[in-house]
Amino acid sequence: MNNEEPINISEVQIGGPTKYVPHKIAERREMVDACESIGKQVGYDSYEKKDKSLLYDLRRCKRYDRFLAVLDRLKGRVPSLGTDKEFLTYLDTHQEEWREYKSFISIFAKDYISSREYAESLKNKKKEGS
Fold first, then answer.
1. Other Cβ atoms closer than 10 A to 103
2. Which 3 state secondary structure label does DSSP give 7?
3. 30 sits in which H/E element
4. pTM: predicted TM-score of the whole model, two decimal places
5. In angstroms, rounded to a whole number, what is the distance separating the alpha carbons of residues 42 and 113?
């Protein structure tokens, strides 16, 4: 069993001991930011159209090629979706990380939907109380 502490996302394991690699941290933050942007747009569209099928399609992806196909379908159904070339290029060169980024997109989308639903329920409660 490995007794080493888990690596913080702001650290990268290079051979021996853990070393900080600033450019890797910047790449990581940019990818998470891109996932947040995509997730919020998917969440917005799902909430406005009252259709969570896009979110479910994304969450059901089990393979990298399927994930790319769902991103392509998302792009067609959510016109404002900003999947930029850098995001897709990074995914292509780091295919082993696709599940993580898929999860980030799903989390941000669900968070957006939940926050809108909560705000709407508060608004409805105020209307009922007045």
1. 14
2. coil
3. helix 22-49
4. 0.74
5. 9
> 24-45 burial, b for 16+ CB within 10 Å, e for fewer?
eeeeeeebeebbbbbbbbbbbb
Write a three-state SS string for 59-112.
HCCCCHHHHHHHHHHHHHHCCCCCCCHHHHHHHHHCHHHHHHHHHHHHHHHHHH
Listed in sequence order, the residues at least 6 apart from 42 whose beta carbon sits closer than 8 Å to its beta carbon are 54, 55, 58, 74, 78, 81, 105, 109, 112
Smallest Cα–Cα separation from 49: which of 126, 113, 111, 103? 113
- Please, which pLDDT band fits residue 116 given cuts at 50, 70 and 90? very high
Q: Which amino acid is at 123?
A: K
On the question of pLDDT at 90 being above 70, the answer is: yes
- Whole-angstrom Cα distance, residue 125 to residue 102? 35
